[in-house]
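Re: beginner question about structure tokens

> Can someone show what the tokenized structure looks like for a real chain? I only ever see the sequence side.

Sure, here's an example I had lying around. Input first:
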Amino acid sequence: MRCLLLLLTVLAACEHEPPPKKAPPAVPTPPPPIDPANAQPPANPTPTPPPPTPPANANPPPVDAAIDAPPPVSQDCVDIAAHIADTMIAESKDPQQKAFIEQDKTKIIRRTAEACTRDSWKPEVLACFRKATKMEQMQICAKDLAAPAADTAQGP
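And the corresponding structure tokens:
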């Protein structure tokens, strides 16, 4: 249970950033009083011309879909990942840990679903996770899954 929880926590913590600090609202300062003796008439501002319109046959700039779009995931993997995250939250005894998992639930689900889809988890493994109601049972289901770093650490 600790291994799976640690793995998912490490995955979720990779991009964990505190929320940006909000700047205090700016208070507008009133303009200085105008001396009627030295008052000048307001200047007429020159309007800015509209931006040029592109030619009718111009194509829009290409968008790099690989950067903007997250990798596709299967619905089975999303369902399993949500079940894993819900079980982690339900079994968390420590309120701080539970709050952390709840805060990162979406990230945990996304990364678990991506790993499931990318690594093509077997139907037996998916069925095992579906039946599991405790983290201990999920650890048994995860024993056949390859750890991401284990594949690259082994030499010839």
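Each token stands for a local structural state, so reading them left to right follows the chain. The chain has a mean pLDDT of 75.
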